[in-house]
Fold this protein.
Amino acid sequence: QVQLVESGGGLVQPGGSLRLTCTSSEFNLDYYDIGWFRQAPGKEREGVACSRPSDDSTQYADSVKGRFTISRDSAKNTVSLQMNGLKPEDTGVYYCVADHLLWARWGASDFAYKAYEHWGQGTQVTVSS
């Protein structure tokens, strides 16, 4: 049984918006650092955003800063990624990741390739006219 489930992906035109949601029926996401990663065919996986539960701190990749927002809803046990002003380069499969030490690895050269504790199966985001 999967530990994390992503939803909210789909097809959107450039400039549009999507909201991705990550949730788990197995554990409380407030006990974990949560990250969003994405990968397109033929391209490297990259970290998009990261959230630390202790103080609600957030980090973003330069390519999405100002357009994407990661947030938590503790009552629903969800972490969302609001994506505005979408560009074709944002196309890819988006993954939710939960790990107790993910935050500490932000900025490392291998950040997107660590064997983190929990991965979702991904949700497809396609930005095209």
Notes: The longest strand covers residues 92-99. The chain has a mean pLDDT of 95. The two ends are 36 Å apart (CA to CA).
